[in-house]
Design brief:
The protein has about 750 residues and is α+β, with helices and mostly antiparallel strands. It contains 28 helices and 27 strands. It folds into 5 domains: about 120 residues, Alpha-Beta Plaits, CATH 3.30.70.100; about 200 residues, no CATH class; about 100 residues, Calcium-transporting ATPase, cytoplasmic transduction domain A (Distorted Sandwich), CATH 2.70.150; about 160 residues, HAD superfamily/HAD-like (Rossmann fold, 3-Layer(aba) Sandwich); about 120 residues, Calcium-transporting ATPase, cytoplasmic domain N (3-Layer(aba) Sandwich), CATH 3.40.1110.
């Protein structure tokens, strides 16, 4: 068995402490720096060198995990350095990788230079990045139609109510230009879809009233149409879905062994059969088999499994896995988009793409009323021979008002939600959210925090307290980067446990720690590790039920206690799940790559039915579950945060993620919880349902006066301007009513 051992002396010899001046060379025009008044000048930043070659330096900086703002400041400073070509900061792994110009000098000089920057990042604040203004786009050099509408309305008012001498030809020409988009949409529907649409009604009414010289009526109509279209488009997804590049998410370069030499190549140049080297703190760039070495892998992005796994020669590894400890050589078997993660992204891109604008029941009814309205207008004209009466009927379609008030309602709801820390990307997402009857949650990082936490400490020795067991474990595991070790140390600090004196220690990868503490030989680690070291484990026989996840503590060959741990459930998760089940009447499912035992335990704690709990689910299986629910006629929302969730997110009717989720998950999501709190999901559902109620209310505000005026126009006749006033007036009232959510003050 291959074992990686880390000696305290070796670690200490790599540590560096810096209290130096900020770097001298920061190019002008990139960042603005000021003294950071919140930082302490006494703070010293420690680091250790993981790996270095000419042109590349990799460090472990523990402070990156402790201070997110420091990590951001450090990234900004290093990016601004003239000698740095690229930089990668991974706070979760406490890793900093810098690629620099080899012309800078030897590696020792760059190490010292970066050391200065590490310290400087504690003493400065990055105010802003100065960006060079991009040249104005020339893709659309034409004058927007809304400007023609505004000019047409101005000319109509000046030449009408105000009585100024405005050329009718000029006004009519401006109206004609403003009408072109309407005409294009109308005749496009006739040609492509073989049907008359609302735009055709608008076009006919505008044409008739313009020919009659009643310029104010078509000008007002055009204004409302343009307002509606612009607001409607604003409710579409604000950021276009970009092509997601797997390779960019894995880094820019990879180390490979070619012709007996280690060389760094762009990640897209890694080929099948290459021997790929992965160092601590780096992501695995390929799918393959370990050729030599042993390492501890964090596979949470791929499987959702919160516990790292130890792998050695002959075992399979997958792209996007993070090497926490150890160094491995991998034979690349699948590269790029052929990897498991690549297939996941490919599956995501195969998901159906929807129009992100809201399509509601009222608009569909309005579309169905087009032909009857045309027939009624034609009948009135045939009987009265009065084009004005026919134009009045065409003007009184309530579709125009709906096209204004519905998007306005949606925009107001989106704005209100944004104030509450809920980013809803489109009108369609809001509409679907109001109708969901099933929510599928990912487990790790969604219902849980995605980090290990101590749940219980037990002593098996009546003369030894649980606190002493915790003190032994925390002392033995100090300075280890394993998530369980970090959780134990963190828990000891929270409980204000005094650490003991550790004389020497030895860490065995994937097993545990052997240490001398207060003169006692201490073992902390897995049950297998302690049995391997001939520790008496008979005390375990008295346990009625073994913990799902635990480490064991022994001194001088005798088991002293056990420390249970698990992926900690979010504090709000149970309340949110119960509210969805009982108050909202929504069916709740849970999907996870974790094993069935762990999944069942979390589901039971949250009150999720066993039949709705899906364990050991890889990305494609998560997407299958969502599609199966669709096939059953469900409207599905999926909540997830990782790369492994991206396919399921893409197939869901509404996809939900967190601000601190993976880049792919955030981009895929229709709804992003900016406060990283599941309570925001309940608020989003409430906002969506209230918006739906408001739309129904506004539909009545528009439909009732327009239908009444339509009856009058058909029987007695109605002046087109009067018809326009009725139509536009109801639209304005509904539009103002639609703004109510936007006017609400967000709660403190």
């Amino acid at each position: 068995m291959v074992q990686a051992k880390i000696l305290p002396s070796a670690v200490q010899s790599l540590n560096g402490t810096f209290q130096a001046a900020p770097p001298e060379r920061v190019p002008e025009g990139k960042v603005t720096l000021v003294k950071n008044t919140k930082s302490s000048s006494r703070l010293k930043v420690y680091y250790s060198v993981i790996h270095e070659t000419p042109g590349r330096l990799r460090l472990r900086v523990p402070h990156l995990k402790e201070d997110a703002e420091y990590a951001q400041r450090l990234l900004s400073l290093i990016e601004a350095d003239k000698y740095v070509t690229s930089v990668k900061v991974k706070p979760a792994a406490a890793s900093l990788t810098v690629n620099y110009e080899p012309s800078f000098g030897n590696t020792a000089l760059m190490r010292a230079h970066i050391g200065h920057i590490l310290q400087a990042a504690t003493d400065v604040a990055v105010l802003k990045t100065k960006k060079v203004s991009a040249p104005a786009s020339v893709e659309d050099s034409s004058i927007p139609s809304w400007k023609f509408s505004a000019v047409a309305a101005t000319l109509a008012v000046l030449g009408g109510p105000l009585g100024l001498s405005i050329s009718p030809l000029l006004t009519a020409s401006t109206i004609a230009l403003a009408t072109l988009p309407v005409a294009k949409r109308a005749f496009s529907a006739i040609y492509n879809e073989r049907k008359f649409n609302i735009e055709f009604l608008d076009f006919m009414a505008i044409a008739i009233t313009t020919v009659q010289g009643q310029f104010l009526t078509p000008a007002l109509m055009l204004g409302l149409i343009e307002i509606g279209e612009n607001i409607r488009d604003r409710t579409a997804r604000s950021s276009a879905q970009q092509t997601l590049d797997l390779l960019s998410s894995l880094g820019q370069f990879a180390w490979v062994e070619r012709d007996g030499e280690k060389v760094q190549v762009p990640i897209e140049e890694v080929e099948k059969g290459d021997t790929v080297i992965v160092y601590p703190g780096e992501q695995v760039p390929v799918d393959g088999t370990i050729l030599r070495g042993q390492a501890l892998f964090d596979e949470q992005k791929l499987t959702g499994e919160s516990m790292p796994v130890s792998k050695r020669e002959g075992q399979a590894v997958y792209a996007s896995s993070l090497v926490r400890e150890g160094q491995i050589y991998i034979v690349a078997e699948r590269v790029g988009n052929d990897t498991c993660v690549g297939k996941t992204i490919e599956l995501m891109q195969q998901a159906p793409v929807h129009d992100t604008r809201m399509e509601n029941y009222a608009a569909k009814i309005a579309e169905k009323a087009v032909v009857p309205t045309l027939l009624l207008s034609a009948s009135v004209f045939a009987l009265s021979r009065n084009p004005a009466r026919a134009a009045s009927i065409l003007t009184l379609d309530f579709a125009t008002g709906i096209r204004v008030c519905v998007p306005t309602t949606v925009l107001a709801a989106l704005t209100y939600a944004a104030r509450r820390g809920i980013l809803i990307r489109s009108g369609r997402a809001l509409e679907q959210l109001a109708s969901i009857d099933t929510i599928v949650f990912d487990k790790t990082g969604t219902l849980t925090k995605g980090e290990i936490g101590v749940t219980n400490v037990r002593s098996f020795n009546s003369e030894v307290s649980a606190n002493y067991v915790l003190a032994l474990a925390a002392t033995a595991e100090m300075r280890l980067t394993h998530p369980v070790a970090e959780a134990v140390v963190r828990h000891a600090e929270q409980e204000q446990i005094d650490f003991l004196t550790r004389e020497k220690w030895e860490y065995q990868l994937g097993l545990g720690v052997e240490a001398i503490i207060d003169g006692k030989l201490v073992y902390v680690g897995s049950e297998r590790f302690l049995r391997q070291e001939n520790v008496d484990m008979s005390a375990l026989d008295a346990l009625e039920e073994k913990a799902a996840s635990a480490i064991f503590v022994a001194t001088n060959g005798e088991l002293q206690g056990i420390i249970e741990h698990s992926d900690v459930v979010r504090p709000e998760s149970k309340k949110v799940v119960q509210s969805l089940l009982t108050v909202e009447g929504i069916d709740v499912h849970m999907l996870t790559g974790d094993n069935k035992r762990t999944a069942s335990a979390v589901a039971a704690e949250l009150g999720i039915s066993p039949k709705n709990t899906h364990a050991e689910a890889f990305p494609e299986q998560k997407a299958d579950v969502v599609q199966q629910l669709h096939a059953e006629g469900k409207t599905v929302a999926f909540v997830g945060d990782g790369v492994n969730d991206s396919a399921a997110l893409a197939f869901a009717d509404v996809s939900v993620s967190f601000a601190n989720g993976s880049d792919i998950a955030r981009e895929t999501a229709d709804l992003v919880l900016m406060n990283n709190d599941l309570q925001g999901l309940l608020e989003a559902i409430e906002v969506a349902r209230k918006a739906k109620q408001l739309i129904k209310q506004n539909t009545s505000i528009i439909a009732i006066p327009n239908l009444a005026a339509l009856v009058v126009a058909a029987i007695f006749g109605l002046n087109p301007l009067t018809a326009t006033v009725v139509n536009n007036g109801s639209t304005v009232v509904a539009g103002v009513n639609a703004l109510r959510p936007m006017l609400k003050k967000s709660a403190e």
